[in-house]
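Researcher: Go.
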Amino acid sequence: MNAVRALVALAALWLAGCVSQTGLGRAETLRAGAGQLSMGLEAQLMLANSRAGPQPVPIPWAILQAGYRRGVGERKEAGLRLFGLVIGPAGLAHFGGALDGKYLLRRSEEGWDVAVATSLGYHQVRFGTPWHYPSITASLMLGRDFDGRHAIVLGPRLGYGAWAGEGQGTIDFPFVGGFFGVDWRLSRTFHFAPELVFLWSPVSFNGQQYDADRFGASSVQLGLGGAFDL
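Model: Structure:
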């Protein structure tokens, strides 16, 4: 039972780290003084290697999140996101937050916008005892605008997290992957923004890092969210 709890908590924490990196919006930054309120639901599937069997262990997960971002300069944007989930019968609770920053490297009227984004987050999962997961990520965002209303955004993402809990040593979580999203303006102030993210981490879920025999965990997230221009 303790092994199952540890596996579930570890999966939840790593997935929480993935969730904290979604919902960054378009590659183009908001104009100075403009704000945007976002919210979303994300469904995820994680595949974790385990010595219990030859096949990766599938672990589903879901989470709710809300955020606010604001243009703070001609090419700069800052944001805050909060997220959480409580499953009463299972005794599992998760919550966290992230501070985001975005800088526009290139703005194009007919081509691709290019931006870099960073996120600093903290996540906690409670499943009997609390587990802590601070993380930092960096993304290269490539965005293309269509008709001045809709846009796509995609690019690579990498980061690092550290998992710490009672009675165990800290486990490092480097990860790398990519994302693809669509920003579809449905009205003058509302955007529908689905996003797909894939991440992989070279961490074994048997409690050992960089196992020479079997290691690695991957996750796929589908976020269905929206944003309101303020």
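Model: The longest helix spans residues 2-19.
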